[in-house]
Amino acid sequence: MKKWNMIIDIAKCHDCNNCFLACKDEHVSNPWPPYSEAQPWHGQRWMNIMRKERGQYPYVDVAYLPMPCMHCDDPSCIKESNAGAVIKRKDGIVIIDPEKAKGQEDLVNACPYGAIWWNSEKSVPQKCTFCAHLLDEGWKEPRCVQACPTGALKIIQTEDAEMNKIVKADDLKTYLPDLATNPRVYYANLNRYVRCFIAGNVVLQDKDECAENAKLTLKKDEKVIQATSANSYGDFKFDNLFQDSGEYVLEATYPGYNILTVTVALKASVSVNSLFLLPVNSD
Amino acid sequence: MEFTADDAASWNIKAHGKEFAPPRKTTISPYTLNYRSTVYSPKRILYPLKRVDFDPNGNRNCMKRGESRYERISWDTASEIVSNEIKRIKREQGAAGILFSRGSHHLWGNVGYHFSGLYRFMNMVGSTMYVQNPDSWEGWHWGGMHQWGFSWRLGLPEQYDLLEDALKHTEMIVFWASDPETTGGIYAAFESTSRRQWLKDLGVKMVFIDPFYNHTAGMFSDKWFAPRPGSENAMACAIAYVWITENRYDQQYIKTHALGFEKWKDYILGREDQVPKTPEWAELETQIPAREIRVLAREWSAKKTMLAAGGLGGWGGACRSATGNEWARLMISLQAMQGLGKPGINIWSTTQGAPCDTRVMFPGYAEGGISGDIDNTAAGVRLVSRLDYKPIRGKINNFITRLRIPEAILEGKSHWTGRSGGVGIEYQFQKCEYPAPGYPGPQMYYRYGNSYIGTMTETNRYIKAYRTDRLSFVVNQAIWHEGETHFADIILPACTNFERWDISEFSSCSGYIPDTYSQCNHRVISLQKKCIDPLGESKSDYDIFALLSKKLGLYDVYTEGGRSDFDWVKKMFEGSDLPKYISWEKFLNKGYYVVPIPEKYKATPALRWFAEGRKKDTPDWGPSTTDHNEGDKGGLQTTSGLIEFESSSLKRFKPEDEERPVIPKYIPSWEGHHTAELYTKYPLQLISPHPRFSFHTMGDGKDSWINDVKDHRVLKEDGFYYWIIRINTKDAMDRGIGNGDLVRVFNDRGEVILASQVTERVPPGTVHSYESCSDYNPVGKPGESADRCGCVNILTPSRFITKHSSGMAPNSCLVQIQKLDEDS
Questions:
Q1: Minimum mean pLDDT among A38-52, B162-176, B455-469, B620-634: which range?
Q2: Residues of B with Cβ-Cβ distance to A149 under 8 angstroms
Q3: What is the 3-state secondary structure (H, E, C) of B28-93?
Q4: Residue ranges of A 137-166 with Cβ closer than 8 A to chain B
Q5: CA A96 to CA A111: how far, in whole Å?
Q6: What is the dihedral of CA B645, B647, B650, B655, to 10 degrees?
Q7: How much helix, strand and coil, in percent to the nearest 5, is found in chain A?
Q8: What is chain B's mean pLDDT, rounded?
Q9: pLDDT tens for each residue of B305-321
Q10: Taking a C-beta distance cutoff of 8 angstroms, is the pair B692, A14 a contact?
């Protein structure tokens, strides 16, 4: 059985909100029985775009994580629902039945991703359906994917075995895997959102020059875990580090210059700014 | 829109052993996806309205504008009042007493656009026209034009075929005040996004210079520089200094293609003013380390580099500032030093210059649609001769620059230097006065479409101008209740594009931006189908003007014997080249046509002809025979035909002008870090670039869905959606401001209440808030109290960009910020 999967590339999302607005255009004031009740005019985010800004000026980057319903294979919402209000379709899509789910406000808290929203006027919990009403009519993709201008959003209908191959080949990840709900939404470059960096810049102090090709190593518990060299501006970045992961020792070397060592207690992404290297024979 | 096999094939560019073809669909902008929520917005005006205390035959209570409520009236009453006022003013003062003005782009199409139906009506009745300052061009218009001409493009360069050129040759792009992922060039959604992805994949290095870590930088940046606003020109001079002193520029090209370089070189080296423009000197101005400016300069000259100055090959927030003229000139100077026009080296913003067939004529909006106004639109270039209609020319030579409408009303007069509009370079030196000799001042104000309070400068002026009995009558023809609507005496409800017929081409302006459809990956000409009947009693603008014409006894003149908007759509189709390719019936049925690329498409890259000393071979609209002698090999529009470091036109006009000298210079901003007294009082520099989610107020406000976009507005506990200001963590901490807090942003010109976004995307000392808020909501007296909607242009200076030009400079703006005291 072919099933639906969504792949979201964090590196390609720049928060244009086309997905968010296409979803509104499709669902606000439009009930699609038996798939979904109409989305209210304001307040719900079936595609919820989260922002993560990393670092400090001028060593900064920004990532966005668009989060629809994860259409989990072990969805918490089904476990919490009564009277079969939430169903898992054979094609992987999770649907909240707008009739059977009436009054089940608890479902909003059942989703660990916060992807279920409460419609107080209609007294019904609601969420993204992958536009199943369109896919069932033969559409190749939901509205959000169609409207994405950068290729950040993709949807694939395939066998699970095939999908697992893609996940491995493209190094795709699920968001918050510890929740163990087995999402069908996968992320590429998720590290840009969930991990952090140590960035900075190396300068040859005596010449006031950018230390291009300065060698940098990052040690953790006295073991080198990453090595890089500075670019033409002397800038460097060690990425994919865990938040609150303790002490790191950063070492900057350049031929003819004294080694400079900096200790960083890493909480969130941090810039060590400019490291000024002194020539070996200077006082 | 997804293309089918029936639609014309896409182009295909071969470079570096790869093939590049665009997606077989059009992209769409966020505000377009949002449009349904604005069509059915609770802020729609559904009936004609009259201010309750306005009595055309008695007390008009003009001072109450902006405070009084409205009552519903019939179309018959509304059109009777408006037409009677028109007749009264014409009888008492002459038609020039009717001043009209419109916002930019709340609608689209050849029939319903303002150059079309509105101009036809105003020219027919007679009126004083507002003159639009080139609000997105400014520095290029008032500065750049004196260095390379291009007056027909308001100072912007041609961009033909530069995509292929870049894919084949370019090694680095410097995006300077350029954020195409936000602005989409203009009207072009995300058509160019895939091009930047291709260039990135080819390994083209991308450097960003912008006080804000913008959204294109967020996706593509290899290096980001954030010079202090107003200091970018010092950085440009220092780059030139490195090139000159290290011999890293194209000396042969300068010899044959430039005028007055030696004089400018003396200025850069400090021979003129004893200040060498070294990177160390620039570091003090910009706060960018000198060593990094050096590396940038060296990379720039070592690699084939495109300069994306602004978002459209030109434009950019830096051009809308006190230093904007000189910035545009310095951008041209830098690329001239690297051989502007040679393969891979140009001024190109990645947005225009896709392959396209420019020979297929379809009118853009700037060709005036049904007006035939050959004086104020590009109707005369080709459309008038192709369309079977009776054009109506304006017969009143009285006009006011849009930036001085408040003074025209409050003081009854104004004077300034400069007409824009693109006819010739020296038009911008003209002395203008309002009213012109013999004409009356404003009596009636006919306001059409959206609001200036969020888009012009020092905009409390515009509010005060309404609240005076110097204007005896104000009518506002609008779709929505927006910022300015509630200052009218009569409100006429117009409908949206979806409730009437029109016809147009994706992203095609024509006129002052010829062939802008090269922003798009495919030329798509569309029937804009009427989808629903006008809501409530709203009418299309065309039908409103037709109704008023009837009251004025001019119905047959305006409608040419009763034509409907649909009839005009068919006329536009017939006047274009479309009938050669597709029948009217098929077009009606299909709804669009994709213009094919010729099989043997021959690229003519912009300015290659100039670099190679050939006759111009691009499809550009100028220079004209006025600019060149028969038999000349061509050249630019400048007097010499060369890139003029020493400008002939400025030399003839005012060589002593220190704000716009004969050679381009770094001149500290008249509102910036050197204006010590003001800077002490207001130590934060506010930049307010063109926005991401509100296109000339389209999309924003109106209770639309776009207000829910997290990076557009913030919903606070009071149920109000506040506009965002971005402030550096340090500046926020110094002021006790947390993320999402409401803040007062103020200076001597006014105050706006905004929601803070604490960020590292701006350096300390710079704050960022987009312009183009659509609504206005004063906490007290209109025009004299804080606005909480987000009209940051209340804070920006009304001072002209330079004394002898009349552009706006909103990005030269000093403010202070405090956390809003919730108790006050």
A1: B620-634
A2: 27-28, 189-190, 193
A3: CCHHHHCHHHHHCCCCECCCCEEECCCCCCCCCCHHHCCCCCEEECCHHHHHHHHHHHHHHHHHHC
A4: 147, 149-151
A5: 12
A6: 70
A7: 15, 40, 45
A8: 96
A9: 999 999 999 999 999 99
A10: no
Residue A205: both structure tokens together: 């102090």
Percent above pLDDT 90 for chain B = 96
Contact residues on chain B for A25, CB-CB shorter than 8 A:
33-34, 36-37
Q: Is A66 helix (H, G, I), strand (E, B) or coil?
A: strand
The total of other beta-carbon atoms located within 10 Å of residue A166's CB is 14
CB B326 within 8 A of CB B319: no
Angle between the B324-337 and B232-245 helix axes, to the nearest 10 degrees?
A: 20
What type of residue sits at position B310? Answer: G
Pairwise CB contact (< 8 Å): B28 & A150: no
Q: Do A20 and B709 touch (CB under 8 A)?
A: yes
pLDDT at A282: 66
Q: What is the DSSP letter of A242?
A: P
Give chain B positions within 8 Å (CB) of A232. Answer: 295, 299
List the one residue out of B235, B504, B243 whose CA is nearest residue B366.
B504
Give Rg (Cα) of chain A.
Answer: 24
Interface ipTM above 0.90: yes
**What is the rounded distance in angstroms from the CA atom of residue B416 to the CA atom of residue B133?**
12
Site from A16, A146, A203, A275 to mutate, B interface, most B CB atoms within 10 angstroms: A16
Instruction: Determine phi and psi for B819, rounding to 5 degrees.
Output: -65, 140
Helix (H, G, I), strand (E, B) or coil at B742: strand
Token pair in block for residue B248: 């890293």
**Quick check: is B365 catalytic?**
yes
Structure tokens at B199: 């260039």
Tell me the three state secondary structure of residue B202.
coil
Q: Which two tokens stand for residue B505?
A: 């081409």
| A12 with B219: Cβ contact below 8 A | yes
Please give the Cα distance from B686 to B710 (Å, whole number).
21
> Which among B130, B365, B439, B776 is annotated as catalytic?
B365
* pLDDT for residue B695 is more than 80: yes
Residues of chain A found within 8 Å of residue B40, distances taken between Cβ atoms: 29
pLDDT in tens, A205-251: 999 999 999 999 999 999 999 999 999 999 999 999 999 999 999 99
Contact A218, A227 (CB under 8 A): yes
